[in-house]
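User: Sequence in, structure out. Go.
Assistant: Echoing your sequence, followed by the structure tokens.
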Amino acid sequence: MSGGESRWVYDQVIRCTQCNLCILGCPMFMGSRFDHYSPRAIVVLARDHVEGRVELDGLLLELIYMCTLCGNCNVRCPSRIDVVGIVDRLRRSFVVS
């Protein structure tokens, strides 16, 4: 991910208050009922990735491709985090690498 893309993702993820409102109506969460399959998990792992603590593999990679990009999380987030935009940038970053 380029410097500008990483900065945009970081600016999004640091606003997360972990309120978990994003899981309401999320097909990924509703299908599993496990919190680690949720938009919040994507946001937390994306932050860890941008900060260099996790690679773009494992659970993070699984989550960004399980996400349907439906946008329910974006609508429900009181901090207005663009989870769909984060997932899109992470997917593109993975494909390029």
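User: And one key feature?
Assistant: The CA atoms of residues 65 and 96 lie 15 Å apart.
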